[in-house]
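Re: the request from the purification team.
They wanted to know what the chain is likely to look like in 3D before they choose a buffer screen. I agreed to run a prediction and write the result into the notebook, where they can find it.
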Amino acid sequence: MLSRKGLIPEDYLPTRLAEGVLQPKLFKAKPGKARFVAKNGTCNVAHTNIREQGRFLLDVFTTLVDLKWLHTIIIFTMSFLCSWLLFGMIWWLIAFAHGDMDQRGDDFVPCVTGIHSFASAFLFSIEVQVTIGFGGRMITEECVSAIIVLIVQNIVGLVINAIMLGCIFMKTAQANRRAETLIFSKHAVISVRNNKLCFMIRIGDLRKSMIISATVRLQVVRRSTTNEGEVVPLDQIDIHIDNPVGTNGVFLVSPLIICHVIDKDSPLYELSACDLQHEDIEMIVVLEGVVETTGITTQARTSYVSEEILWGQRFVPTVSPEDGMYAVDYSKFGNTTKVPTPCCSAKKLDEAGGISQFKLNEGVTLRATVRRRRGSVVRRSRKEM
């Protein structure tokens, strides 16, 4: 079993709340630099000059679900209020045309009993549509038009109930709420793993309920130019994830380190530590899976620009055995430790014969240092002779 400590980690990235967390800025983004995907998972794409606005009305239900809560509540209230007013006016016209407003004898049979003004007609409209039935007002068999209006109002009321209540249910059960507890590390790291230069991030799930069939996808978004000279401003390239299972599926019970081996097929193959800081590149991470409790597919996203990729560091362990179970310490979720890593590109390493043939600083090794975003103690690396 797993026990979870420190459920408010110091260095982690909630997929929706990251922008509101006050964290010290260790890296300053380049001025004017746009991100394709924000740290909290929202896509920074503005759709402009859409001339065919009527296409959104062809799918009214999805449009209502995508609206903000304030707009949805306003439409929810106005849809019922307008229908009550409309049919209240119709009931008042029926009573006025039949003469129900006039004082008649005891033998006079009105279309609707108890309607003497527009206010009473409006109250009768509410009673009909929401089936309250106080008993003070009722329809009679005197007017066929009143019977037809009664049938139409009941059908219209059922349609409005089905659409609006379904919209409210879908908004409350949206899968992005589950993504609030799927977290990513604030920074990505590049270091040597199994004698290979690797790009790594850490993901985790704060809830005990699992994400079934969880998959992780990595993409690189950058500006590229084709052989014909065509400029692609947002070229999306899928990159492979090193997984022993052979697929992108993960068993997300405890925090996992997602690893991408930088080989000749990787977009990072020719980038060194210095080149990376000047490269206009963005790594997008997409975590998808099925929520165990609801069966709804959820997706969490984040991205890492070049300033958020730490070269020569790796993540510290967060899982340790404790009293017959495994304890997860989320206070260490984003902590990294400095490790000896060549600053050259993976291509240069392969040309030199691999990491085993490459000399790290000509025999000088670096003692591991722990990097914490909110720690007063930082152990600096020093040389050992």
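For the purification team: Residues 69-98 form the longest helix (30 residues).
Please add any questions underneath this entry.
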